[in-house]
Write a structure and sequence with these properties.
Blueprint lengths: L4 E4 L2 E4 L4 E4 L2 E2 L4 H12 L5 E2 H9 L6 H14 L10 E4 L3 E4 L4 E3 L1 H11 L16 E2 L40 H8 L4 E3 L3 E2 L8 H15 L7 H8 L7 H10 L4 E10 L2 E9 L5 E8 L2 H15 L12 H15 L3 H8 L3 H6 L1 H13 L3 H15 L4 H17 L3 H14 L6 H17 L3 H17 L3 H17 L3 H17 L3 H17 L3 H14 L6 H17 L3 H9 L10 H17 L3 H12 L9 H16 L23 H13 L3 H18 L2 H17 L3 H9 L9 H13 L3 H15 L2 E2 L2 H4 L4
Parallel strand pairs: 9-15, 10-12, 11-12
Antiparallel strand pairs: 1-2, 1-8, 2-3, 3-4, 5-7, 6-7, 12-13, 13-14
Helix pairs in contact: 1-2, 1-3, 6-9, 6-10, 10-11, 10-13, 11-13, 13-14, 14-15, 15-16, 15-17, 16-17, 17-18, 17-19, 18-19, 19-20, 19-21, 20-21, 21-22, 21-23, 22-23, 23-24, 23-25, 24-25, 25-26, 25-27, 26-27, 27-28, 28-29, 28-30, 29-30, 30-31, 30-32, 31-32, 32-33
GO molecular function, one term: DNA binding
Keywords: DNA-binding, Membrane, Transmembrane, Transmembrane helix
Protein name: DNA-binding winged helix-turn-helix (WHTH) protein/tetratricopeptide (TPR) repeat protein
Length: about 775
């Protein structure tokens, strides 16, 4: 292989120096995993067969598929890929593997020179719009400023990702060793992936054994973070990577780090554990058994004893069941849901008979977005579980509650979480109780019931901090951000959401990060910050290949459409919408309505009024069960009404009357604007004026920039058309602070200064509106004075 430098996805692979780097940081990689990456990249124009790849890596043919699979797994992990995402290395069924990511290949010497020259070069913005044909604007704002009312959805997952937060004092005596560790009675430990010697077929013990060991130590009274957190923090680096170890130490500076080795020994299994503190004090234990997990259990119990901890309770699961569970968990930790499912259903009779296997299979379904199947499994498990094991029953209830949240059935979710809280009221399982309280808080938040939501989130914080689960605390912060959004306090929400996103990003909590970024898009749009909204969408878009839930993929796509519409990037919004099916029958009901609603907004912005009306009617036809988003319905109704009124003849009755009945007193600003514009269309100036004042007052009481701008765009234009320039100046002046970032506000400024014939101010306003227009055209009468 010639010496070349291959660049891809933030990584560089130098075949001359045999080095893989992520940015400027070296990544630990075994020689065979390096050869695997290099060969697949060099042959990226085609799929490489397994036999060919084996010959290229080992130089001989007698290598098993299992060994090859383990090597590909290590190669994928090194570059942040896995069998689920397959962003770089794609599995070709019954053939081999294919490198699918874009690669830039250069000479290493040329690359070094280019890097030096580029060190001082400016970096262009990543979200700059591309030029495209302009689209005419209508006389008033082409579409209502979209007040997105989504909150953080379903941050209570069946496998909650957490990282320990507790700590303890170490006695700084390297020579004290075991005695020092016992004297301080460690409260916290981090278990690292195990080193596995022997047959590659036993590779599942690396993560499966790690998870089993962590659970055993947890049962012995130590605070141990879920394995998902540790694996996420260590990827894509190897377990021995210095940067990863520093990150673990930064997160938990006084925690015990537990390393382990599993190896066959005289037809038995031997497990060696090494537990070390931050000061170097250490304990080593070993155990042998005929079964690898039994040896791990004995070693864990001996470690607990050496630390002065009580022995964990006896195993309640059959060894065969336990091994199958840990094999499946190893696959889930590697994000290989298909392999996990195959392991769990490999013995159908065992899967049907053992509730823990059924529960783990429901977890796989949940992570794959198969919510109905997960719900059916959890229903059956709960029907059979009885009251003999309150903790397991509470786990099942927490799981089903999370499923019901994903299905937008908040009443059912609340019942599940109520039952879980009742089972856990003795406080012996603070983490499960904290998750149940968080879930119940989410249900209150999604139903706009702030007081009980705040109470539950506060109680959840106490329980999760007691459990040392700092990422679950971050999950509470994310939910508090969603709650503040529902309370029309986007400024306060922003601090919670940004803090939570930073925590999730740091530890690779992909699902939680995606949910929080989606909420940030909504929050920035409510604050009239479209560039910030797109920046949040850019971050989530990079993670899209790792999302397996079709509802979440649809949601992040629609968020991106929202951001493009706010920036006037209509062509890109249209491209994304055309990539989606006409109907999404399998999506949750709110997403099924949101898709045609966005199509309606795009069509209205492009002047396709008939298409906008058709899409709006389709959106209004989706009424989710228990729908309480009347404001969202009113937003769609306003789009429909504007589309219909733009095309003569005008109807005698409101076009949205079948969905939005007339209200003498509006509940939301958008509803009052809807009523005002209909009154104006009927020539009822006094009624229009009254409803506009009502809309303005409602928006001001809320104080949300998007609501205030929505009202000002319509009301300001109406005042100008009726020659009420002084009042128009007051209304339009209210949104002048946002004219540097919101097109509708900038266009209003231009209309006002044009009506007042203030030449210099008009010229500046035209410049500002032109800069923000994107693909929206400013009317010719405003572009050229005197027309």
């Amino acid at each position: 292989m010639s010496g070349r430098l291959h660049r891809f996805g933030g990584f560089s692979l130098n075949t001359r120096t045999r080095e893989l780097r992520r940015g400027d940081v070296p990544v630990a990689l075994s020689p065979r995993a390096f050869d695997c990456l290099a060969y697949l990249i060099e042959q990226r124009g085609r799929a490489v067969g397994k036999d060919e790849l084996i010959e290229a890596i080992w130089g001989r043919p007698n290598v098993s598929d299992t060994q090859l699979g383990q090597t590909v797994l290590r190669a994928r992990r090194a570059i942040g890929d896995d069998a689920q995402a397959q962003s770089f290395i794609r599995t070709v069924a019954r053939h081999g593997y294919h490198w699918v990511a874009e690669v830039e290949t250069v000479d290493p010497d040329e690359a070094s020179a280019a890097n030096a020259a580029a060190a001082t070069a400016a970096i262009p913005p990543t979200s700059a719009p591309s030029p495209a044909p302009a689209v005419p604007s209508q006389a008033v704002a082409s579409e209502p400023t979209h007040r997105v009312r989504t909150t953080t959805r379903a941050l209570v997952a069946l496998l909650a990702i957490a990282l320990l937060g507790g700590g303890f004092a170490w006695i700084a005596s390297r020579h004290a060793g075991d005695t020092a560790l016992r004297r301080v009675a460690p409260a916290s430990a981090i278990v690292l992936p195990l080193r596995v010697d022997g047959d590659p077929a036993d590779g599942w013990l690396r993560l499966g054994g790690m998870d089993f060991l962590a659970q055993r130590l947890r049962e012995g009274g130590l605070v141990v973070p879920p394995s998902e957190s540790v694996v996420a923090l260590l990827q894509p680096a190897g377990a021995a990577d210095d940067a990863a170890m520093r990150a673990l130490r930064d997160a938990a500076p006084t925690a015990l780090l537990v390393r382990g080795r599993v190896a066959p020994h005289d037809h038995r299994w031997r497990v060696d554990l090494h537990a070390s503190g931050a000061d170097g004090a250490a304990v080593e234990v070993e155990a042998e058994q005929a079964d690898a997990l039994a040896a791990t259990r004995d070693a864990a119990d001996r470690l607990l004893g050496r630390l002065g901890r009580a022995q964990a309770p006896a195993d309640v699961l059959d060894g065969n069941v336990q091994e199958r569970l840990q094999r499946a968990q190893a696959s889930m930790l590697a994000n290989d849901l298909a392999a996990a499912r195959a392991i769990l259903v490999g013995d159908p009779q065992l899967a049907r008979a053992e509730p823990q296997l059924g529960y783990r299979l429901a977890q796989v379904d949940f992570r794959a977005g198969e919510y109905r199947r997960a719900e059916a499994s959890l229903d059956a498990l709960l029907a059979e579980a009885g009251d003999g094991d309150p903790l397991f029953r509470a786990q099942l209830l927490n799981g089903r509650g999370a499923v019901h949240i994903r299905l937008d059935d908040y009443a059912a979710a609340e019942r599940d979480y109520d039952a879980a809280v009742a089972l856990l009221h003795d406080g012996r399982h603070p983490r499960e109780l904290g998750l149940a309280l968080t879930g119940r808080g989410v249900t209150h938040s999604m139903r706009h019931d702030a007081a009980p939501a705040l109470a539950d989130f506060g109680d959840a914080r106490v329980q999760l901090e007691a459990a040392g689960d700092s990422l679950a605390v971050a999950r509470v912060d994310s939910n508090l951000g969603g709650l503040e959004m529902n309370r029309d306090r986007p400024d306060q929400a922003l601090a919670y959401l940004e803090r939570a996103a930073a925590e999730f990003e740091r530890y690779g909590a992909i699902n939680e990060l995606m949910e929080t970024l989606e909420s940030l898009v909504s929050d920035h749009l409510a604050l009239l910050q479209p560039l910030a909204a797109l920046a949040a969408s850019d971050r989530s878009w990079l993670l899209a290949p790792r999302v397996t839930d079709p509802n979440q993929r649809l949601d992040l796509t629609l968020d991106r459409v929202d951001a493009f519409l706010a920036l006037g990037r209509l062509r890109e919004a249209g491209t994304l919408l055309r990539s989606l099916p006409d109907e999404v029958a399998d999506a949750n009901p709110f997403l099924a309505r949101r898709l045609p609603a966005l199509r309606a907004r795009l069509a209205l912005a492009e002047g396709r009024d008939a298409d906008a009306a058709d899409a709006a009617r389709r959106a209004l036809g989706h009424r989710p069960p228990g729908d309480d988003e009347g404001e969202g319905v009113a937003e769609i109704a306003l789009v429909l009404q504007r589309a219909v009124l733009a095309t003569p003849p005008r109807p005698a009755d409101p076009p949205s009357a079948a969905w939005v009945p007339h209200r003498a007193v509006a509940a939301w600003p958008v509803q009052a604007v809807h009523e005002a514009e209909w009154a104006d269309a009927q020539g009822a100036a006094d009624e229009a004026s009254r409803r506009y004042v009502e809309a303005r007052d409602l928006a001001e009481r809320r104080g949300v920039p998007a609501d205030i701008a929505l009202v000002a765009a319509s009301y300001g234009d109406w005042l100008l058309r009726h020659g009420r320039l002084h009042e128009a100046g007051t209304v339009i002046g209210r949104v002048s602070a946002w004219a540097d970032r919101d097109f509708d506000c900038a266009l209003l400024q231009l209309r006002l200064f044009d009506a007042l014939q203030q030449g210099d101010a008009r010229a500046k306003a035209l410049q500002a509106a032109t800069a923000l227009a994107g693909e929206r055209t400013i009317p010719a009468s405003l572009r050229e004075p005197g027309r």
